[in-house]
Amino acid sequence: MSSLEDEKLIQMVYDFIESSESSSSPAYSSSASSDSLSFNHHTKYFTLQEILRSGTEAESGVLKSVLKHMRLNKRDANKRSTTTTGLKKWLAKKLQIDGFNASLCQTSWVTSSGCAGGDYEYIDIVIKDGNGGETRLIVDIDFKSQFELARPTQSYKELTDLLPTIYVGDENKLNNIITLLCAAAKQSLKDRGLHIPPWRTLTYMQCKWLGRAQKWKKWL
């Protein structure tokens, strides 16, 4: 990814922070009449809404910490990271300082039948509960753009407009989002007469966050 693209990504994150502080997410537009939506899309839309609205106290705490540090990073231009990886490393360190068991994770997979090879980075946090159990939370500061399509249908755009730029949630919640969006992407591409690109298949998208990952917890 070029420096210009990295800067655009970072600015997208800052824009999200400002918008999330100024107002809550708008309700589904009344101008988009339910009569114009297929039953299938209507179901997907409200299912995705419910998935995104579900959350735990732990997720809220992590998101609050993430937004706090991103605001501070924005205000101090001298400390602002200039690459996506640098920003993720910086954020993971700050989350560690806040007491979270945070790591920078990288998934990497080879080309196999029906799935192109690739790699991806995100932040991983392990939360321990009072009963000795653990919950793995995934933090992705570039979440929404991972589902972009060329020439999306209006129905698909309505779904991706619901997605947050910054994702904080567990693997089950994430897998539900991926499964729903990949099905919708397949229909969108079909409606446009386009083939599904290898990087938008369900298997590829699951490999990004749910595949076997290597963790880095120390940066020095």
Q: How are the secondary structure elements laid out?
A:
Blueprint: H1 3-22, H2 39-53, H3 57-75, H4 84-97, E1 101-109, E2 118-128, E3 134-140, H5 154-160, E4 167-170, H6 171-191, H7 202-210, E5 213-216
Pfam families: PDDEXK_6
InterPro entries: PDDEXK-like
Account of the protein in words:
The protein has helices at residues 3-22, 39-53, 57-75, 84-97, 154-160, 171-191, 202-210; strands at 101-109, 118-128, 134-140, 167-170, 213-216. Helix 2 runs antiparallel to helix 6, helix 5 runs antiparallel to helix 6 and helix 6 runs antiparallel to helix 7. Strands 4-3-2-1-5 form a 5-stranded antiparallel beta sheet. The protein is α+β, with helices and mostly antiparallel strands. It holds the Pfam family PDDEXK_6.
Key terms:
220 residues; 5 strands; single chain; globular; 7 helices; 48% helix; alpha+beta
Tally of strands: 5
Query: What can be said about the biggest beta sheet?
Result: 5 strands, antiparallel
**Helical percentage:** 40-55%
> What overall geometry do the principal axes of the alpha carbons give?
globular
Return residue spans where pLDDT drops below 50 for at least 5 consecutive residues: 23-27, 30-36
Query: What order do the strands of the largest sheet run in, or round the barrel if closed?
Result: 4-3-2-1-5
Number of helices: 7
Query: What average pLDDT do the residues reach?
Result: 83
Radius of gyration, rounded? 18 Å
Order of helices and strands: HHHHEEEHEHHE
Structural class: alpha+beta
Strand residue content: 15-25%
The span between the termini is 24 Å
Summed up:
By secondary structure, this protein is an alpha+beta fold. It has helices at residues 3-22, 39-53, 57-75, 84-97, 154-160, 171-191, 202-210; strands at residues 101-109, 118-128, 134-140, 167-170, 213-216. It contains seven helices and five strands, in the order ααααβββαβααβ.
